[in-house]
Amino acid sequence: MATSALAPAAAGTSFDEYRRLLTVRFTAMIAWFLLIITPLLWPTDKLFFGDDAGMLAFFDYWRPRIIALTVLTIVGLRLVERLRRRPAIVATVMLTAGAALCGAAVGGLGERGEVYYAYGFLLSLATIPLIVSPPARLAINLIVPLAFTIPYYLTHPAYFEGAAPFAYSTMIFQVFAMAASVLVGHVLFALIRDNFNQRQILGRQARELADAREKSERLLLNILPQTVASQLKDGALVIADAYDDVSVLFVDICGFTGLSEGAEPGEVVALLNLVFSAYDGLVERYGVEKIKTIGDAYMVAAGLPRKRPDHAEAIAGLALEMRDVAATFVDPSGAPLRVRIGASCGPVVAGVIGRKKFIYDLWGDTVNTASRMESHGEPGSIQITRELAERLGDRFVCEERGEVAIKGKGRMITWWLRGRRGGAAEGPGEGAATARAASG
After folding, report:
1. 141, 125 in Cβ contact below 8 A?
2. Could you tell me where the DSSP H helices lie in 287-344?
3. pLDDT at residue number 2
4. Contacts of 140 by beta carbon, 8 Å cutoff, 6+ apart
5. Residue 225 — left, alpha, or beta (φ > 0 → left; ψ -120 to 50 → alpha)?
């Protein structure tokens, strides 16, 4: 069936394109109506004109032709709509042919058709596509009624014989009907134009709102994990979850406080931005979660908010690449950057704190231990707990450091993470070069 005549305009559609589309669809709607109603009325011929052989012959002759014309109109309009070529002209040709067919049919009835004349004339006006531009509408309102009237008079020449007053009054009726059609067309054209303008405004506002929403969601996802952000948008007042098994990593740039005191502020911020942007790329590639940055420290967790069984391997691989990436940067004095990295695994509590400038953070002994692994490590090294080293097994090269006095923990046996089993233990790898290139 035909699409609604008030179909929404696509983004970027001009008003001329919009009204041409509506012209096609408005005309197609009338054609579909005639195509459906004509066969439906066919069985009523014998009911109302069973004793009138002339009327039955008339309907038998004209109904198939009307159906054929409506089918051609629908097919032609569909083709025009696809090709976007001169829909008003095609619609006018189809309507003119339809009006001429109706005029000849009604005129051929002779005196019996006079009662149908006014209805047929009005029908020819009703099928005029009123959404075309004003100049075209004036022309169509003249062409289509004439296409109905001339065949009517040619097939019913006795109409004027002895009935001049009636004939002239009918002509006056025609003039007023055509004027009314032009007026109605003008009103409809103005309504369609206003409707189009309103739709354009609403569409632009909707796009601006969608862009703003997308921007705010991107900003929110830069602060919170996606699942946590969804809970916050859904109105959750308290967001807190316990995780039995995750890995936590801290990385800190060695001697950065001293470096920042002797350098320009812009240099300091630019260097941190380059390093942390490279780390952001690694975090995204490994599918782990950046928790926060504190000064020149960077905190990451694996295994939350979505649980994953390989969180230890992910955090170990990330730690090695972070160490290698740092070595590709130089501080303001020209010396290569060195970092301390510490990691641990175990249970944590995660949640969102604050309502303004909120943050997604972790708490628990696992977090404290990972922080101590970093702070009690050595430049260029990755210190991990026994639990994490055992979890990594033979997939990574781990070297026992021995007992170390850890603040707040006492003496602990810790391990150095040196590299992947079968891979280079030191020096920047392929991942480091990739992250450095991504950071600019």
Report:
1. yes
2. 311-326
3. 40
4. 88, 92, 95, 128, 129, 132
5. beta
Distance CA 200, CA 204 (A): 6
Six token digits for residue 119: 């209805």
Mark residue 84 as left, alpha or beta (left: phi above 0; alpha: psi -120 to 50; beta: remaining).
left
Beta strands in 331-409 (DSSP E): 339-353, 359-363, 381-385, 396-406
- How big is the chain, counted in residues? 440
The set of residues, in sequence order, having a beta carbon less than 8 Å from that of 21 and lying 6+ positions away, is 7, 9, 13, 81, 87
pTM recorded for the entire structure: 0.54
Per DSSP, the three-state class of 326 is helix
Q: Where are the alpha helices (DSSP H) in 342-416?
A: 365-375, 386-392
Q: Are 105 and 154 in contact (CB under 8 A)?
A: no
Of the candidates 323, 315, 307, 318, the one whose C-alpha atom is nearest the C-alpha of residue 391 is 315
Contact between residue 100 and residue 143 where contact means Cβ atoms under 8 Å apart: no
User: How does DSSP classify residue 426?
Assistant: S
DSSP 42: T
Q: Which fold has domain 226-439?
A: Alpha-Beta Plaits (3.30.70)
Helix (H), strand (E) counts: the chain: 14, 8
Question: What is the C-alpha R_g of the chain?
Answer: 41
The H or E element containing residue 289 is strand 289-294
CA distance 76 to 99: 17
Mark 45-74 as b/e (b = at least 16 C-beta within 10 Å). Answer: beeebeeeeebeebbeebbeebeebbeebb
Angstrom distances, CA of residue 383 to CA of 220, 293, 369, 419: 32, 19, 11, 12
Q: pLDDT tens digit string along 182-198?
A: 787 788 888 888 888 88
What band does 271 get if pLDDT is binned at 50, 70 and 90? Answer: confident
- In 180-255, DSSP assigns E strands to 240-253
Residue 383, judged by CB atoms within 10 A of its CB (0-12, 13-18, 19+), counts as: buried
Pure H helices in 224-310: 226-233, 256-261, 265-286
Rounded-to-integer distance, Cα 291 and Cα 366, Å: 14
CA atoms of 387 and 375, how far apart (whole Å): 18
- DSSP lists the bridge partners of residue 397 as 419
